[in-house]
Amino acid sequence: MTASGVRVRIAPSPTGEPHVGTAYIALFNYLFAKKHGGEFILRIEDTDATRSTPEFEKKVLDALKWCGLKWSEGPDVGGPYGPYRQSDRKHIYGEYVEKIVAAGHGFRCFCTPERLEKMREAQRAANLPPKYDGHCLNLSADEVSSRMTAGEPSVVRMKIPAEGSCKFTDGVYGDVEIPWDAVDMQVLLKADGMPTYHMANVVDDHLMKITHVARGEEWLASVPKHILIYRYLGLEPPVFMHLSLMRNADKSKLSKRKNPTSISYYTALGYIPEALMNFLGLFFVQIAEGEELMTMDELTEKFDPENLSKAGAIFDIQKLDWLNGRWIREKLSQEEFQHRVLHWAMENDRLKAGLALSQSRISKLGELPDLTGFLFKSDLNLDPSAFAKIKSPPEEILEILNTVQPDLEKILEWNVESIEAELRAVADRMGKKLKVVVAPLFVAISGSSRSLPLFDSMAILGRAVVRQRLKLASQAVASLVGPKN
After folding, report:
1. Binding site annotation covers 225?
2. In this structure, are 475 and 353 located in the same domain?
3. What pTM was computed for the model?
4. Which of 140, 212, 311, 382 is deepest in the core (most CB within 10 A)?
């Protein structure tokens, strides 16, 4: 333990591209640890085995390292309370679940997915919030034993008090009260033997001696479940702090459907990590006008967890651009600037791969900027006229773009082979020739109908940049189609 005893953690799930919201929460925990002379820990929460992948875990670690955050314990550096990956801790949770069941605070549930779906449908039809109806709550011990002996699949759920409310003090929201009838009988252990997020979260925070849990406000409603689990296990809960969600300028939740949210998007466009951390850190400090440009040490000095806003952190891209420009102009020497530019160009083998694809397609080196420039541009500034040379009508182009976007999100490992396979599958499902599907994609991705090979280009640019370019292309083509009747 540290002299202050403070131990905080960031616990991302490796189920997709690392989100700027993860960096936002991680930065708060990092600054909190530095401010109190404590420890900042990284734990990978991969209880969702169907969506968690090693590729996404690597992306999480790389993204947080790019942000300049350093952890004293984690899956890559080890530590005294490991393992730091929940799938490697599967053997730990069973005894805690059994303790809850043995004490009468949990029960076996044999409800099938079909029954649960019918239950939820009925609740929705009656305008009731969907939650478990207690169907298996009062099964006898003999019936539970015989059904388990017969190999019937089951989960373990937690019991919830029938009356009253859960009262707790949050580090941001102050005194909070949530009635127990608003809390679901949460699954603690899944049928495959893996714990749910809620169970693993509590056990891991206890075993890793976490003193303060700082996370997004979307988890505020889950606190009663967590407090109950601590209570059922006879453990002391940590201090909870729930930070306001990052939002768009219109106060809507920041989401990839509206704006780029992946950290990899901002790295690809040439934002520098100090500027992004500076931008996110301003949500946690009180400063006067003119003091916006701040290093991590300056953010730590000004950091005040006792005076946080509940109004919501507005992700203002124009302010980020302004800060990034100031960092480039005012904080980097010429030598450092040149080093950053070269490092950025070489990221993900962008320059190397782009040159390899270009070599057989040029007659002189001066043609390289026009051929490969799209790999390095922040914005293609696509005009609807860019799609004029495509034989398909605008309606068909828009259909292709809108079909391809969600299908590409299904790809787990983003590479040339998986991209090609998915686009061929899209063409088959749409009943179109592959060349018809890829024609508008060439323009959307490169800004031209003739460019480097499409699948390779998409792999080099990365999922986040491709997602944004396809979205902007759809908007451009939609203006040709006009509004729906």
Report:
1. no
2. yes
3. 0.92
4. 212
